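pls read this protein:
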Amino acid sequence: MFAVERAGVARALSGIRADVVHAHWTYEFALGALKTRDRPTVITAHDAPFTVLSHMPDAYRLVRALLALRTRLKRPTLTAVSPYLAERWRREMFYRDPIDVIPNPVSASMHHSQGGAASGAGPIILSVTDSSRRKNVMTLLRAFPIIRARYPNAELRLVGNGLGPDDEMARTWTRDSPASGVVFVGRRGRDDVASEYARATVFCHTSLEESQGLVLLEAVREGLPVVAGRDSGAVRWTLFDGAAGILTDVRSPQAVADALILAISTPERASTEGFDGARMVEERFGTDVIADIYLEKYRRTIAAAAA
């Protein structure tokens, strides 16, 4: 399984002098890195393989889960990007060694002006996601007509893989709901995504499960009201235990619509009073903060290997 990739990683690392090796994800990169037995290695888990498999049951995810299981059996030095993910690895993978939580970093604000909807236009709901079953975009699409009944000029903009105007989800939705106010933007580069955040009124993420959820932090950093799942893995933790967003049942179109209408009509209720999203994101998830945590992790890993 992914033997060529694993061998390629190991071969590349064999020609590099390093005090410590750090592999992200627990699949072929991790297994390739763990072949370099002469150097201490850190592995970062970015997902819970069997949880992902439960949401997207197919042969590819099964193979990936088996790869992660092989990694787990080697008892690597492991970090996870959220407390939720660390707990999933203990519960699903029976990992009993310590797991340090080191989240993914978020860069500083993109510094685009926060414009929201143009004068006289309706609110703009933004979702940066993909079309997979786990991301649950269909619930948001089904919620949107309820919102349009309250805000006839509302617009829903969907950004990400599988969400382009020629993709299957767009073809199906526009065939069944022409002139619906939904814009299938599709995959875009960083600058274009920054512009999408800047023009939005509210951000919605209906994912059923997240190991962390960087798009949530990007939305908070840009000052957007956020609606997301109350039981969607690490979403609650990522949103500062709910202080940075409205948490709702993202399996229910009505609940999603109600939360979005609340966020649009009274955006100040989308976060705890006095909450400074940009500052909090920088203090907990800023690139310099996370880099320092990793450097300390490397030092401890090297020292433990030398002991």
User: Anything to note?
Assistant: The chain has 13 helices and ten strands. The longest helix spans residues 287-306.
